[in-house]
Amino acid sequence: MPSQTNELALETAIEKALCGISTEDIKSGTIAEPTSSYSGQGYVIGKPADFNAKYALDELRFWDFLESTQKEELEKLKRQSDWKIKVLDRFDKLVKKYGILRLLRKGLAVDDAHFTLFYVAPLQNSSQAIKDNFEKNQFSLTRQLRYSVANPLEEIDMVIFINGIPISTLELKNQWTGQNAKVHGVDQYKYKRDITQPLLNFGRCIVHFAMDTDEIYMTTKLDGANTFFLPFNMGNQFGKGNPPNAFGHKTSYFWQDILRKESIANIIQHFVRFDGSENDALSKKTLYFPRYHQLDVVRKLIKDSRKKGAGETYLIQHSAGSGKSNSITWLAYQLIEAYPESETVAGNKTTNQPLFDSVIVVTDRRLLDKQLRDNIKEFSEVKNIVAPAYKSADLKSALENGKRIIVTTIQKFPFIIEGIADMSHKQFAVIVDEAHSSQSGSSADKLNEAIGNTGEDQDYKDYQDKILQAMQSRKMTKNASYFAFTATPKNNTLEKFGVKQEDGSFKPFHLYSMKQAIEEGFILDVLANYTTYKSYYEIEKSIEENPLFDTSKAQKKLRAYVEKHKQTVGTKAEIMLDHFTSSVVNTKKLKGKAKAMVVTQSIESAIRYYQALQQLLNSRGNPFKIVIAFSGEKEVDGIKYTEAQMNGFPESETKDKFDEDEYRVLVVANKYLTGFDQPKLSAMYVDKKLQGVLAVQTLSRLNRSANKLGKKTEDLFVLDFFNTVEDIQKSFDPFYTSTTLSGATDINVLHELKDSLDDSGIYEQSEVEDFNEKYFNKVDAQFLSPIIDVAAQRFVSDLELEEKDKADYKIKAKQFVKIYGQVAAILPYEMIAWEKLFWFLKFLIPKLKIEDPQSDALDKLLESVDLSTYGLERVKLNASISLDDDESVLDPQNPNVRGAHGQEEKDELETIINGFNEKWFQGWEATPEDQRVKFISLSKSIQAHPDFDKKVAQNADDQNRELALKKILDDVMSQQRRQELELYKLYAQDPSFYQAFFNTMKQVINLR
Predict the structure, then answer these.
(1) How far is CA 490 from the centre of its chain?
(2) Which of 706, 713, 710 is nearest to 677 (CA)?
(3) To which H or E segment does residue 815 belong?
(4) How far is 456 from 454, CA to CA, in rounded Å?
(5) With contact defined as beta carbons under 8 Å apart, do 138 and 63 qualify?
(6) Which of 146, 192, 626, 695: disulfide with 731, CB 3.0–4.6 Å?
(7) What was the pLDDT predicted at 427?
């Protein structure tokens, strides 16, 4: 007989793994029905007939558990004839009010009786009684459970119970039968399950899983079509999904590990939590169940800490979108309950004492303090164990008094290092949350001073460097373990906190990559619509020269900008505002709430941009407001400015004000480039050198998802005036763990797609015209349906298309809608025929049904199609930067000090000149030979200057030599201004050009 590859086979495999036997074994007589758990993971097989759908309980297990463990409490109620109904009604009432989690943790009180409904898993120092009680819990699994009072024939594939109380439901699919969890399993929960039935009410079950042999998805709240499912997958090659499993199905970790009795107990006791205030109705709360990587990282860190004791360092590289706040919360609480595995690693503790006296959470997320306290209130019987310590005195007191969890800020980190070293009789766990070190301001200046960092513009805080510097200032003590969370570890951070490999390299202890976060939909891909100014112009120019396109004023400005080199703040500000107005504001991105950030080179530059943008807005009737953010006071053109004075409200209100609908653009230099969460940000205009960690952190301000606003990848847009695609790719590569560079999309692909769609005969052009005229004249929808239905009828039957032809047509239609949607969103031009077809297809595609006689799998998959299947996920209008699947390797820092006679990097003259021209002189009419002559001529003039030999060539002081060279260059350029007027204008007026020109001349002189 061939292998069984259907849902039944998967059900049987799970049941056998958990219970040691299967229902099929019992039915066939292979094994007699056991009276208690057989083997496997210690579960017993439940019977559908024992389930009471009204109370959503397996009554046989529920009463058996209470009778066998708490008989005396039951006897108190048995004097009453209706005692069973009384218990069930009380249980039902409390579950509806508080959710099942509260009853599992606190038990059930009925009259003068109190019942424990779940015995917790023991800790290392727990008494034998607690260990014995845990074994009395009855874990069971029921297949094909009829859950509905209204429709007794409706079944759920599988339900997990503890002591008769449902914990989780499972809908199973099997990839081999053409059905999967992501489409069919999720669809079943959304549309084919009656969520009004008690079992599926919110809070009644902790979690609902849709699972197949390859993937798992979960939700804690069933809400019909609005149900939001999250992946519960391990990740594969740094991306979504699960890796191949040499010993079984890819998802076997679920029943072999996650559903173990100890694992389920640990999740209930230490992970699952309700978010919301005590007085909120249950329906208003959010129930959090850990994603796989959150569960995995906390468990691995606890296990390693128990095994190795204090004095370790751990680097957790978790991308934005990984849910670091929850991971840190869960880790902090479980670290205070971690016991050393043996006396040899206990330090000054015994194996019956917690390993750490205090857990210190270093973060700039003030919300984390409240979240920790709220969560621990749920988890712990002991209250007030979380102490906020934002002042040095509070921190000192909390450390000395042994508060179990202390929440403090990054500014206090040097004090923490000092305090820990002075308390060698105690052991500490320090969790460093580097991700949200963000808004800067005066509170951070003291830390800068403390570690010797002074300078004019201190908005950008490299917190990794600060932490490392503070740690290096004192010898590391063995009484503290450090747990560093970051999305973007630098090489020195990896070396300090990472795990050393046999070959001498360092790796993070745990990884949840940017690639996985993007593929799983937790953050958006900011590189998908990344556009350099040069390529933006070239596409605009191709459109401008194409008679099919309407020409707009914006394109003329672009031409002026690139061809005439008018690289002034005013011109750039106008281009930014034109794009933002036409492509973001007027198109009502994010339901009309989309915002933009302008990133500039310095505070002075930010002030000039703000003024230019404000002037433009004034001339256009102020359709919206803008804000600026910078620290301290800055003098520009003899006038002193502060953030508060320019905005008209205190600096402390900037973040909240920018969240208001009337404020649409934020101008910054360095402030708000890291850790600033504003989901409404969808556009960014960059006029600043970005590289390494700063590039990733800056552009990642756009990646926050906003499901309520319908935010999608195609809503994001970056216009970069300064950096190249290669620059940004190089910066993102190490932190993405996956990258390729697809070139600019040829917009003519839309012509080809449209031609193919037109030729199919599915629709007539007159129908497209008729539909658009009616649609945009807002006629009643009933008059639109016949137009679409006629075309759909041709597709489904009239044209007698083969199924593969139907699939091909539908894919092309989807491609057209997807690509045009991105093109239209990014560029200010109109292509009327494309626009009309776009709207027609938007309504036609849902009606293009593909009837497969075998199953509905093909159409279902097409409905949920991820365009990456067809190689188009990263094909955007312009440069789409994608990152390759190999692990990135960072070189260690260069330990050698750079000296005057060190090995300098020297480029050939042509390379230097070409590099300069590539960035600054696109369209320079001089031939390459003329350009070479000009550079050589200028360099000779500099070297012939009377001050050159003494003040430059023979000057050993780097700083003075550079100042002297700048003065000589000023003299030479002043003498040359008549012959090279355009060059001199750029040199005198544009600071960026000046710096690049000066650096190039230094290289040329060095060669000669």
Answers:
(1) 19
(2) 706
(3) helix 803-826
(4) 7
(5) no
(6) 695
(7) 92
Provide CB contacts within 8 A for 797, sequence distance 6+: none
Q: By three-state DSSP, how is residue 744 classified? A: coil
Q: Which of 41, 45, 46, 71 is nearest to 57 (CA)?
A: 46
Contacts of 835-838 with C-beta under 8 Å, sequence gap 24+, read: 836/768, 836/769, 836/772, 837/754, 837/757, 837/768
Q: Tell me the residue type at 65.
A: F
Task: Tell me which amino acid residue 390 is.
Answer: Y
pLDDT in tens, 78-113: 888 899 999 999 999 999 999 999 999 999 999 889
The yes-or-no verdict on residue 912 having pLDDT over 70 is: no
Q: Given pLDDT bands bounded at 50, 70 and 90, which one contains residue 785?
A: confident
Q: Is residue 37 within 8 Å of residue 44, measured between CB atoms? A: yes
Distance (Å, whole) CA 693 – CA 735: 9
Alpha helices in 36-168 (DSSP H): 59-69, 71-77, 83-98, 100-106, 128-136
Q: For the segment 637-662, what is each residue's pLDDT rounded down to a tens digit?
A: 899 999 999 999 999 899 999 999 99
Task: Please state which of the ranges 438-442, 518-522, 664-668, 914-918 shows the lowest mean pLDDT.
Answer: 438-442
Token reading at 80: 């009453």
Q: Is pLDDT above 60 for 917? A: no
Q: Are 238 and 882 in contact (CB under 8 A)?
A: no
Distinct helix (H) and strand (E) counts, the chain: 40, 32
Q: Tokens representing 740?
A: 């390729």
Supply angle C-alpha 697, 703, 709, rounded to 5: 150
State which amino acid sits at residue 696.
Answer: V
Nearest of 60, 221, 15, 46 to residue 145 by alpha carbon = 46
Residues 139-152, buried b or exposed e (16+ Cβ, 10 A)? bbbbbebbbbeeee
Strand 273-275 and strand 286-288: pairing? Answer: antiparallel
- Give the SS3 label for residue 510: strand
Pairing mode, strands 358-362 and 499-500: unpaired
Confidence band for 988, pLDDT divided at 50, 70 and 90: confident
The amino acid at 740: T
CB count in 10 Å sphere of residue 518: 27
Provide the pairing of β-strand 739-742 with 880-883. antiparallel
Phi, psi of 318 (to 5 degrees): -115, 125
pLDDT computed for residue 382 by the predictor: 64
Residue 664: C-alpha distances to residues 645, 684, 690 (Å): 19, 12, 23
pTM higher than 0.90 = no
- Output the average pLDDT for the chain: 79
Residue 959 — very low, low, confident or very high, per pLDDT cuts 50/70/90?
confident
Is 794's pLDDT higher than 70?
yes
Whether the Cβ atoms of residue 528 and residue 713 lie closer than 8 Å to each other: yes
pLDDT of residue 910: 53
